[in-house]
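Researcher: Next entry in the queue.
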Amino acid sequence: MAKHRNKKKNKGGTAMDISVEEAFSTPQEVDISDPLQSKTALGAIHRTFKKGRLAKRSKNLRKQKAIEKAVSNIEKSEEKVFKVKTKALRVQSAKSLYE
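Model: Structure for this entry, 99 residues:
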């Protein structure tokens, strides 16, 4: 029954119109009814922005974050090395107790 459900829906559809219109036979006029739109686009280009300091500030912030991340990674690796050394020392002392 589920196989025929989709077929019933498609029967009610109409065919798509594929007739070719002759719109290209005559040249069309250029629409110049709204010249204000192009003037605003040109005005936006000449607008000045003060982004020099902000870019430098964001660059400095990225540098600081990178430095902090590097320092924290170094500290983590030092902690791991310390833990491995202490574990080896504990294992060695435990072995010496039972020998």
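Model: The chain has a mean pLDDT of 77.
Researcher: Noted, moving on.
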